[in-house]
Amino acid sequence: MRAEVILVRHAQPLIPSPGGPDDYHRPLTDTGIVQAERLVDDLAHFRPSLIASSPYLRAMQTIEPTARASGMPVQTDHALREWDSGLGPTPDYARHYAESWADPHSTRPGGESLQQLTERATAILESLARQHPDGTVVVGSHGTFISRALVGFGLTTIDWPFSHAMPMPAIYRIHVTDRGVRATGPGL
């Protein structure tokens, strides 16, 4: 098997706010829409055999221009969604996220632990790679999802500062072979 998974962190979205769109419906800003259009040439270059996305609007809007240009549909999968931290919009989210990264097994009421996210992320990405063993899968997703997927694929240097500093958008390439996994992207 020689699959490649291209993970795309969404472009710039509206900032979460109390009373604003929920996490599923937060769209890209005007800047984010321009950023998504600028990704088309880079992502189409990979000649994807599948384009998949988190069902969250900001991830879909980031990947849709590439899908249009490639003449392909976008396959959404709930397993590609962002981490459900159990937190609502809060200005001090960074403190809470840092605490979760310090103890990846901790869970807030109604949320999932970072360890559970790691297991979910690696399972869905491995499944997509197996379904396209000699192809390239482009996946629109989210920063914490991508960070924890990288952890799950053995990158032990991934931590909260890495996740927090991940640019929007960002592209990470994961090469999956019978010999192991290799990843490249910003900060790696």
TrEMBL record:
UniProtKB keywords: Isomerase
EC number per UniProt: 5.4.2.11
EC class of the enzyme, as a word: isomerase
GO molecular function: phosphatase activity; phosphoglycerate mutase activity
Keyword Isomerase assigned: yes
Top-rank taxon: Bacteria
Cell membrane recorded as keyword: no
InterPro entries in the record: His_Pase_superF_clade-1, His_PPase_superfam, PGM_Phosphatase
Cited PANTHER family: BROAD-SPECIFICITY PHOSPHATASE YOR283W-RELATED
Designated name of the protein: 2,3-bisphosphoglycerate-dependent phosphoglycerate mutase
Provenance organism: Saccharothrix ecbatanensis
